[in-house]
Specification:
About 55% of the residues lie in helices and about 5% in strands. By secondary structure, it is mainly α. It has two domains: about 60 residues, Orthogonal Bundle (Helix Hairpins); about 150 residues, no CATH class. A two-stranded antiparallel ribbon has the order 1-2. A two-stranded antiparallel ribbon has the order 3-4. Helix 3 packs across helix 7. The chain is elongated and about 95 Å long.
Length: about 280
């Protein structure tokens, strides 16, 4: 038997005899519901396959030498890295802790949405004054979501003052800002660290990409009226300000370990603690 060299590894040589034995045993079993001749053929195949399989191993095992990858091209040993690990603590009364343990209050989401909406509006007004020479352009474009006439308006009409568009734009902007602020308050505690990165950059880029694709399909005329580079800047301004306000709020402990009666708002008597 040839021994493997330093550049190869010995493995059992491939053989078809096990499949021959399996086919023969299958035919032997099939003879019970078919014909005896099928069983005779199967028995013969089983015997031939068994003998061939035997000589594949004895008196000398048949091997195949597989070349090894050169040492220079092999994967490097994994280096162990030591880092601090934060261990989870048991909850109240020994309950299992569910993350997040603390959440931001909804009032912080409302405040963050309103303040972020103001920051976003400032960026939009700067764009309107500098590039469109009218502070009413971004407001009229925003009102086109609820005013079909504004979606088809020409450039002169979008730059002109429109009281209805102003009211609709402010209301729509305020509602969306508050809803997104509440979403920040609910989601940010469940995200990894670096909330500024998630809320100030990643979330605005994802939201802008989704809105761009949606408007391109549903209302391409309105999508053409939007300067998307400035839109991204305004969204980032909203995300940074809203995320900062939400992250700075005092978190509240969740009710995950409270009894069902307390979570339901029911008044229950408190049993005295008799443990010493």
């Amino acid at each position: 038997m040839n021994k493997p060299g330093p550049d190869s590894h010995a493995l059992p040589a491939p053989t078809a005899w096990p499949m021959v034995v399996a086919l023969g045993l299958t035919l032997v079993g099939a003879a019970l519901v078919t014909h005896a001749a099928v069983g005779i053929v199967g028995l013969a195949l089983s015997l031939v396959g068994g003998v061939g399989w035997w000589y594949q191993v004895l008196p000398e095992e048949q091997l195949e030498h597989v070349p090894l990858v050169p040492i220079a091209e092999r994967a490097k040993p994994v280096a162990r890295a030591f880092a601090a690990v934060e261990y989870l603590q048991l909850g109240e009364a020994g309950h299992r802790v569910r993350l997040p343990v603390e959440v931001q209050p909804l009032s912080a989401g409302i405040k963050g949405g309103l303040v972020g909406g103001v920051a976003m509006a400032v960026v939009a007004l700067v764009y309107g004054v500098l590039l469109q020479r009218s502070p009413w352009y971004p407001i009229n474009v925003l009102s086109a979501v609820a005013m079909p006439s504004m979606a088809q308006a020409d450039l002169a009409q979008l730059r002109a003052f429109n009281a209805t568009a102003l009211v609709l734009g402010i209301v729509a902007h305020g509602i969306v800002s508050v809803l997104v602020g509440l979403l920040y308050a609910a989601i940010l505690p469940m995200l990894p660290r670096r909330h500024t990165l998630w809320g100030g950059l990643i979330a605005p880029l994802l939201w802008t990409g989704f809105l761009w694709a949606l408007l391109a399909l549903r209302n391409p005329v309105l999508a053409a009226r939007i300067e998307w580079s400035w839109f991204v800047v305004s969204q980032i301004a909203f995300g940074l300000v809203a995320g900062f306000v939400v992250a700075r709020a005092t978190p509240m402990a969740t009710m995950q370990t409270w009894p069902l009666q307390m979570r339901a708002g029911m008044h229950v008597p408190i049993e005295p603690d008799t443990r010493r």
